[in-house]
Amino acid sequence: MFSPEGPSLRELAVQALSSVERGYDLLAPKFDHTPFRTPDSVLHAVAAALARTGPYDDGLDLCCGTGAGVEVLAKVCRRSVTGVDFSAGMLDVARRRAPAGEPRVAWVRADARALPFAPAFDLVVSFGAFGHFLPRELPGLFAQVHSVLRPGGCFAFPVVAPPRPTDLAYWMLLGFDTVMRVRNAVWRPPFVMYYRAFRLGEVRAELDRAGFEVGHQALPEFGLRSDGSPRVRMVVARRPDQAGGSGRRG
């Protein structure tokens, strides 16, 4: 399914009937051949935007999967890069595909809702993972990110503008979320993956409550919608610098 190298329909069905962690352990060897992986165009655009605000010293890729976001951090962080994920299978693939002899990269297995780090990072990024968190979990998740950033540090992630009801994609995402809610109502363990639950206005409010200074910028590579709004934004949430600095390091 998706491509000759991607998972079959049967493999996806087995994944969908598993827990999130077990499902991604199963999917990991073929994950990079599915549409679930963040497109390179988005990764490159975020890397370019971060390069304009950096450099940074130490970066963390939250829910790193097979490590595509770690490659973004390696371009903008001068000292160290860490990928964290709770799927052992995804981390195994990430380790294998990482550039040989790259001493700056570390991989840590942990739950994003209980990060095992001190305030050790100047930059945290995340790509495509937020659908795995229920809205009620966002305050705790954002508090964890806030806790691992140094004062002045930045939490950045891309957000795609939601499709309108006149678009086929709107109904496809609505249908997918509906199927997942029915599945989770009748089957255990739950598999949390909701594409329509992560709304920019609500996310900004939760980031504010977690203590971030929140802004966003358009990613010009993707152009504008018919109403003039960006197709893709990068949210930039900064932990206030206690010393009154800008938060940019170096």
Automatic annotation (TrEMBL):
Enzyme Commission (EC) number: 2.1.-.-
SUPFAM superfamilies, A to Z: S-adenosyl-L-methionine-dependent methyltransferases
rRNA-binding in keyword set: no
MF terms in GO: methyltransferase activity
Domain of life from the UniProt record: Bacteria
Keyword Transferase applies: yes
Listed transmembrane segments: none
Keywords tagged on the record: Methyltransferase, Transferase
Residues annotated as domain Methyltransferase: 60-153
Any Pfam family the entry gives: Methyltransf_25
Cross-referenced PANTHER family: METHYLTRANSFERASE, N6-ADENOSINE-METHYLTRANSFERASE TMT1A
Protein name: Class I SAM-dependent methyltransferase
Source organism of the structure: Streptomyces lanatus
Organismal lineage: Bacteria, Bacillati, Actinomycetota, Actinomycetes, Kitasatosporales
